[in-house]
# Entry
Amino acid sequence: MYSCDCGKSFTRSDNLRRHQLQSCQGGPAVKRMRVDNATLMYTCNYCNVTIPMTQVNSHRRTMSHKNNACVQLSEGVQIITNAFNCRIATYMVESSIVSSDYMLFSNEIRQKVIELLESAIRIHKSIKVNMEVFGNYILQTQDSRETKSFNSQNKIVDQSSDFNAVFDGFRDVIVAQTTEFQERDSGWTCEKILFLEVNINKYSPLGGRSYVKLPECIEWRKAVVNVRNEDQNCFAWAITSALYPANGRVSEVTSYPHFSNVLDVTGMDFPVKVNNKSIERFEDRNDISINVYGLESKFDKGKVKYDVIGPLRYSQRRLQRHVNLLLITDDSGNSHYCWIKDLSRLVSSQLSAHDHKKYFCDGCLIYFSSERLLLRHKMNDGNLVSTTTQTTNFKINKYGRMVAENKLMFENFEKQIRDHL
# Structure
């Protein structure tokens, strides 16, 4: 907690500073002098050089720093950096052969990378991973050489992941990038692949815990039931409130039967995480389909507003008993599940000023004026968002992202303007 001299307490330091500067009756706090990072110097213990603070990140990406900072773990595997007891770590993986063929290089280091992933999973259970390959390139027309790199986006890996499939996914993305780079008339040719950099971060999936109060603007919409539980089982209480009418105040656990008497929660780990297989198992055992949505805060005209986002989790099948949940988080990072009893009332105000009832697709949050149009969307449009083609190559889309070529997706959102002629 952060306390002000006037007696008020805050859970976050930025809220305390805002209070002191704007509304504290004791007078505004003295603003701290701004420090120019360009005047601060940093000495790298590995390279024995002193540089401005503004250049630290770029220095750590240099080949000389990585070579100096490396510590040998096993043959062909070195650790470059680690922090927070290896919850964040960067590894350098090298091949035993010199090659300019990325597929051959990938096959040589495959087992080393998989062993790194397996070791990290044994320790952290769930991780975020991305990979970056470095190579020496030559521009023959100018007789110049440079080190270039190609990386992938972060991917969540857990105990249920197929590590060979994970590695193949990273390899395909990187190989597609290198191939496209050499084929777009750049003139650069790969002379030698140096190493693969594997970045591993511990990942803690978002999960619901104890009671969290709804933001006032969400509570006023009367579209969400928030059960005031004092345990870690808010997921089960939210489901129970959706299935069984309250015999008292809807926010009290005493208004409902105990979840253990009406739900099969065998083998579930509480608090329940969004990306956990336990929700899927819960659906199967209780014959219930579940979607999970979240809240995103934003400042508008000096006020904090919240928009519903998601779904964070979308059920692969809609059953006769279906429940939409809202996952909210407070300033301390505590998360909590609530039951969305009226999705239209909850989401309508953030999309349109019209008061008439809207019919929402709970998969894409597009709304319609009638239930008939919504049903048509679910039977047709929703199933035709993507299709497949014969090729399995990769391509770069209009936003510069590497995507599979065998997925056709609508990207020209600017053409969605309705034609009134």
Q: What stands out?
A: Residues 28-33, 383-390 have pLDDT under 50 and may be disordered. Residues 102-124 form the longest helix (23 residues).
